[in-house]
Amino acid sequence: MLAIVLATGLVVDDGIVVTENIFKKRELGMDKWTAALHGTREIFFAVISTSLTLAVVFIPVIFLQGFTGRLFREFGIVLAGAVIISAFVSLTLTPVLNIRLGGSRIGHSRFYITTEPFYAGLDKGYRYVLSYVIKHKWISITVPIMCIIMIFTILRFLKSELAPLEDHSIIRATITAPEGADFDYTKVLVDRISQQMTDSIPESRLSFARSGGGGGPSSTNVGGINLFLTEPNQRETTQQQVYDKLIKIFRRYSEARIIPTQEQTITTSMSGGSQLPVQFVIQNLEFNKLQDVLPKFLDAARKDSIFSNVDVNLKFNKPELNLTVDRLKATNLGVNESDISSTLQLALSGGRYDYFLRNGKQYQVIGQVERSERSQPKDITSLYVRSRTGKLIQLDNLVKTEESSSPPTLYHFNRYKSATISATLAPGRTLGEGIAEMRKISAKLLDTSFHTDLFGASRDFVESSSNILFALILAIVLIYLILAAQFESFRDPFIIIITVPMALAGALLSLWVFKQTLNIFSEIGMIMLIGIVTKNGILIVEFANQKRKAGLNIPEAAFEAAASRLRPILMTSLATIFGALPIALALGAGASSRVPLGIVVVGGLLFALILTLFVIPVMYILMADKKLQHKISEDTNIEIK
DSSP assignment of 222-274, as one string? Predict the structure, then answer.
């Protein structure tokens, strides 16, 4: 659907160019049949070139690997297909419609008569400014250089993330009670926090609390709460504002670690909604090194202002009670280790002894010491074991107890012993900043025996960034090769490619002005923008070549081509801008994450439009092939006036 919305502004471009050229021929006095034939022939090469360049930029997107390819494959296929079909329709059906619906003679409506003075003045003003720029060529030479400097400057300050967070009307909170807490303690705590959330958030619609579960060895001390909010159009506050309020509320609880999370816009795992955005993995072959460095790493991360909550999956807080049997003493008293083990199992495990029948129903016989007599470590030593002689001997005489702590679970990543540092971001911070800060901390604290990696949304972010960068470079190369084959020149495509840095500079400037981030949607928008902005350069360069073949010199051909193509360039650019404007304005549900894509297209195209009209003619004068024949090709019987 996103591709269809964007395609509405793109598919009309070729039809506008063809219709405008036919209309111009009719104004010169040609009948509608001759105008349609000559107008279409004259613009045929430009339409094919612009359509191919726009379609070819999506080839790298279609064949991208990973979740980026899966996410945008249909997007690229739809847009590329729409552009190709649009070119075919513009060169076949559009001339026929101009003949059938164009009337028997050319005439001007009242609207044309009213608005034409404005466009005539615009054309006159453009010719005047263009002639000044051509005389002072250094202006146009410095523009691309300044745009390249602007690109690298803005990239240093522009924040980056995987995708902007959408308002899904749900906030999740993970609650971790002290290690060793039983289910009853966790349930009371979770219920109390859930009630606090419901009472403190008037926008709440439903609260779903869960105690225990998860399947891990320490699952009795873990709980979770899903807070469902009312629909965005039914509340004045945003999901982010509710999230910030909950962070302040949760800081009051010292008896548990509470970490709220917002559902990521793009996730590639089943648990992506509950995972923290920053997932940094530390790996080492030696477990002791992990144990030594983790407290320092966590302390540095928790003091950092970029993170609001920091946690680690590898914890050393599971309480254990180690029993050491005095074998010599036990042997002298007629007790062996199996007797002690059986006694502990029967007293504490709650195992089934047998069944009994009552009133036609079967019941289990379960043996276990009362809870009040097994809640403290010292209660174990008060148990009795029967010796071989039949005497009852208290365990306190046979065993020694020692309390310690150990990890509930040992984790491995890529066959290394590992620990995953997870973190949520402070308000105003992005995923790119979080990953960069984690890497800075690791560079200070970890030696060469450690390895680091990313997981979850962090891994997706890095992979998508590298994939998009590769697709961006490949798209520029493919455009250059396609244009070189069509123009049969290596200079003309290079002149056209100069529009790319101007468009990218405009796109990044727009993101910075509107406080947007560099994310997967804005990066896809830049790839798309490369194909769009080359259209304007193709129209000017191709028409300048035709003028030179008609006998004009290079400066005259560049000037006349730019002046003649002013209106179709303005019309096609504005059509594309207005087609992408609903995306930039975030119209519709769930459209907030797509705003950067619309801003990139609108801002980049508008910025490049203004500069292209003055830079490309000058670059053509400086770089055009001087050996182009100054005559009209015999195989294209085109009359240029």
Answer: EEEEEEEEPPGGG-SS-HHHHHHHHHHHHTT--SSEEEEEE--SS-SSTTTTT
3-state secondary structure of 102: coil
Cα–Cα distance measured from residue 410 to residue 283, given in angstroms and rounded to the nearest whole number: 12
Q: Which long-range contacts (CB under 8 A, 24 or more apart) does 373-382 make?
A: 374/347, 374/348, 377/321, 377/401, 377/403, 380/321, 380/323, 380/344, 380/348
Using the 8-state DSSP alphabet, how is residue 317 labeled? Answer: -
308-353 pLDDT, tens digit per residue, is 889 888 887 777 888 888 888 888 888 888 888 888 888 887 778 7
Measuring CA to CA, which residue among 561, 566, 537, 535 is closest to residue 549? 561
Burial 29-43 (b: 16+ CB within 10 A, else e): ebebeebbbbbbbbb
Q: What is the pTM of this model?
A: 0.78
Burial call 304-332: b when 16+ CB within 10 Å, e when fewer? bebbbbbbbbbbeebeeeebebeeeebee
The C-alpha atoms of residue 369 and residue 372 are separated, in whole angstroms, by 8
DSSP state of 137: H
Tell me what percent of the chain is helix, strand and coil, each rounded to the nearest 5: 60, 15, 25
Question: Distance (Å, rounded) from C-alpha 503 to C-alpha 533?
Answer: 7
Structure tokens at 212: 């225990």
